[in-house]
Amino acid sequence: MSITVNSVHINNSLYLSDILQLVKLSMVTVNWTYSSSSNTLVQSSFEIWLGSSNANWGTDDFVANTYRQPFVRSKVLSVSMARKYFSRGNTYYGQIRVKATDGTLSAWKKFAFTVTSIPFAYNVVLGPASPTANDD
Question: What is the distance of C-alpha 82 from the center of its chain?
Answer without folding.
Answer: 11
